[in-house]
Amino acid sequence: MDLRNTKAPVNTVTYDKSKIEEPTGNVYEAITIMAKRANQINMEIKTELIDKLEEFATYTDSLDEVFENKEQIEVSKFYERLPKAPALAVEEWLNGDITYKEVVK
User: Fold this and answer.
1) Entry pTM
2) Over the stretch 56-78, which tens digit does the pLDDT of each residue have?
3) Angle between helices 27-54 and 70-81 (to 10 degrees)
4) How far is Cα 7 from Cα 15, in angstroms, rounded to an integer?
């Protein structure tokens, strides 16, 4: 997933219910699918952020040594400004980028 080129809104947006439920015919099923995708996106972002921040990690026991690393601050600011995972999942859903399989019981 390319987080830099996403067009997902950062603020709250109202969506047309019929567009949300159109692929499945059931708004609750659509919301469940988007929620599961949002959890996946959130885990991907979290893993990516932890990996990037580990590059800046210092393993010292001294609290006297506090470094202000501008690159680390920029990485943190980038991830803070990203749209939230549910907004990214809704954008993917509306663009038809999410595939799902119906389970018949």
Assistant:
1) 0.82
2) 776 665 555 556 678 888 888 99
3) 180
4) 15
Residue type, 80: E
How many C-beta atoms lie closer than 10 Å to residue 35's C-beta? 13
Render 62-101 in DSSP notation, one character per residue: -SS-----HHHHHHHHHHHHSPPHHHHHHHHHHHT-----
Q: Up-side HSE of residue 70: CA atoms within 13 Å toward CB?
A: 0
pLDDT in tens, 79-100: 999 999 999 999 999 999 999 9
Which of 50, 35, 20, 46 lies closest to 89 in space, CA to CA?
35
